[in-house]
Amino acid sequence: MSGPRPVVLSGPSGAGKSTLLKRLLQEHRGIFGFSVSRLSARYHEEPEARRGEWQSKAAVQAVQAMNRICVLDVDLQGVRNIKATDLQPIYISVQPPSLHVLEERLRQRNTETEESLEKRLAAARADMESSKEPGLFDAVIINDSLEQAYAELKEALSEEIKKAQRTGA
Ligand code: ADP
């Protein structure tokens, strides 16, 4: 399949994926795209998992065929599911500098109840560990300074961004 490689963005809730992505989309209009469906863990627990996977893959490839970088924001199970396909994306993990900082950011974002916060922090602990697994991610970006993290994200995607710009409409 020609066209830019998709990008998988993963990492704990509150790590800063949406913030980074928003900047990326603002600075690069017409370069990125989104697939309609998701290769998430929940999806794959359904009986129609195989069909779901196919539909998701086709959706990603449709974006790629439009010469756009398809962004997949998935959890770790989603990462592992995508690894089982031949989509060959760039795998990027966005991590907070520490659990403590993550907790502060989640509290400031004001989207969590005390209960959901606890769940997110427990999941984040596991996610931070898994991101160290050799070969799982092409880049692990620690989102301490937003400027620095954003620069690293752009660097990790520079080849694909060039590809999409070169032949883009
Ligand atoms: P995610 O999409 O990964 O769940 P968000 O992008 O919503 O995370 O970020 C979580 C919160 O942290 C938001 O309120 C955001 O404004 C804030 N945030 C993101 N990156 C930074 C950073 N580098 N420094 C300080 N605050 C940040």
Roughly how much helix do the residues carry, as a percent range? 40-55%
Radius of gyration: 16 Å
Number of helices: 7
Low-confidence stretches: 38-44
For the biggest β-sheet, the strand order reads 2-3-1-4-5
Task: Note down, in words, how this protein is organized.
Helix content is 54%, strand content 13%. With 169 residues, the protein is α/β, with parallel strands linked by helices. The radius of gyration is 16 Å and the shape is globular.
Describe this protein with a few key phrases:
five-stranded parallel beta sheet, alpha/beta, binds adenosine-5'-diphosphate, 169 residues
How does the SSE layout of this entry go?
Elements lengths: L6 E4 L6 H11 L4 E3 L6 H5 L3 H17 L3 E5 L2 H8 L6 E6 L3 H11 L4 H17 L8 E4 L3 H22 L2
Parallel strand pairs: 1-3, 1-4, 2-3, 4-5
The chain binds adenosine-5'-diphosphate.
Summed up, what is this model?
The protein is of the alpha/beta class and 169 residues long. It has helices at 17-27, 41-45, 49-65, 76-83, 99-109, 114-130, 146-167; strands at residues 7-10, 32-34, 69-73, 90-95, 139-142.
